[in-house]
Amino acid sequence: MRQLLALTLCCLLIPTPVLADEASHRAAAERFLKLAKADSMTAPLYSQTEQLLTAHFTQMGGSMQYEAILRDYRERARRLLDEQLSWEAIRDELVELYLPVFSEQEFDELSEFYESAAGSKLLEHLPELTRGSMAVARERVEQVLAPQLEQLVEDMADEVETQQLGRARE
């Protein structure tokens, strides 16, 4: 009986550091995500939803006379978005997404960077830099790569057709 009690106590004591490590790892991840402004990443969806509702309202012939209806539906949409996309609603899922990628030390290093002047500047300009980078890539694909890929496909089709005709004669 004493051995069972001793074994149970040992088992209860072993996971404590693991749980503490996990809790501090989670806390470091959450701190980083807040510094990275993950808590406001869904903000554009709010304005897009509002614009969408306003556009539909206008298409339906909504006028200033019925603006109270539009305000009501905007508020309803905001509540729906809050339920599904607020920081409180998505925090745990985002933390779980980042935990396997970065160690606690790496989260601390990232947080330290984002607290620096350079890190703050990066965060401030990252959305526009990302949009610009995507525009550069999209333009290159449309103007340069797409025609080259089309030619490549045509050349392949010609070669396949040539091979098929050559075998058909044999």
Mean pLDDT over the residues: 86
Helical coverage, percent range:
over 70%
The H-and-E topology, N to C, reads as HHHHHHH
Poorly predicted residue ranges:
4-13
Query: How many H/I helices?
Result: 7
Shape: extended
The rounded distance between the terminal residues' Cα atoms is: 88 Å
Q: What percent of residues are in strands?
A: under 5%
Profile the largest sheet: none
Derived structural class: mainly alpha
Measured on Cα atoms, how large is the radius of gyration?
Answer: 28 Å
Structure summary, number of beta strands: 0
Short description:
The chain is mainly α and 170 residues long. The protein contains seven helices and no strands. The protein has a domain at 120-170.
Question: What can you tell me about this protein's structure?
Answer:
- The chain is an all-alpha fold and 170 residues long.
- The chain is 86% helix and 0% strand.
- Residues 4-13 have low confidence and may be disordered.
Layout of helices and strands:
Blueprint: H1 2-13, H2 15-35, H3 43-59, H4 67-85, H5 87-98, H6 104-115, H7 117-169
Helix pairs in contact: 2-5, 2-6, 3-4, 4-5, 6-7
